[in-house]
Amino acid sequence: MTNWRAVFIGFLVTIVVSTLGLVIPGIGQLAGGLAGGFAAGFIAGGGLLRGFWHGLLAGALGGIIGAFILGVVVGLTGLTLGPIGGLLGVSIFVFVTAIAMIMAIESALAGAVGSLLAN
After folding, report:
1. Rounded Cα distance, 95 and 64, in Å
2. What residues contact 67, with CB distance under 8 A and at least 6 apart?
3. pTM beyond cutoff 0.90
4. Which own/partner pairs from 92-99 qualify as long-range (CB within 8 Å, at least 24 positions apart)?
5. The pLDDT of residue 81 is above 80
6. How far, rounded to the nearest angstrom, does the alpha carbon of residue 105 sit from its chain's CA centroid?
7. 10 Å Cβ neighbour count for 101?
8. The predicted structure's pLDDT at residue 113
9. What is the DSSP letter of 39?
10. Quick one: average pLDDT of 90-96?
11. pLDDT(77) > 70
12. Which residues contact 30 (CB under 8 A, 6 or more apart)?
């Protein structure tokens, strides 16, 4: 059974660390995924698969919501740029989708490690 408290706390850790990580683009967001997944796995405990699952959910949730926010901002900015804005929006969507998938995978692995350390 999914411990949604662990997932939500992992998600919040991901958001906070990723926001602080804006100083170091790319690396900061990846560190956020690692920290959030670890926190979710540590709180959920229960072994590798349980930690993996909770880390995956926390990272995916963070990636999806981050992608949505960035997509809205780029979409609104793209409206002012005309046709070039549409191309910019598509390229940002592809980039953000890749980052979200990487964040989910690394969060899952960090969650598995966190759950091992919780026992």
Report:
1. 13
2. 93, 96, 97, 99, 100
3. no
4. 93/67, 96/66, 96/67, 96/70, 96/71, 97/67, 99/29, 99/63, 99/66, 99/67
5. no
6. 9
7. 14
8. 95
9. H
10. 75
11. yes
12. 21, 102, 103, 106
The predicted pLDDT at position 89 comes to 65
The two three-digit tokens of residue 25, written as one number: 């683009």
Residues 85/77, Cβ–Cβ less than 8 Å? yes
Output the six-digit token pair for 30: 């990846």
Closest listed residue to residue 57, CA positions, set 17, 16, 1:
1
Position 102 scores a pLDDT of 85
Helix axes 27-44, 48-81, angle to 10 degrees: 150
Q: In this structure, what token pair is assigned to residue 2? A: 């999914």
For residue 36, the model assigns a pLDDT of 92
Smallest CA-to-CA distance from 112 within 45, 59, 64 is with 45
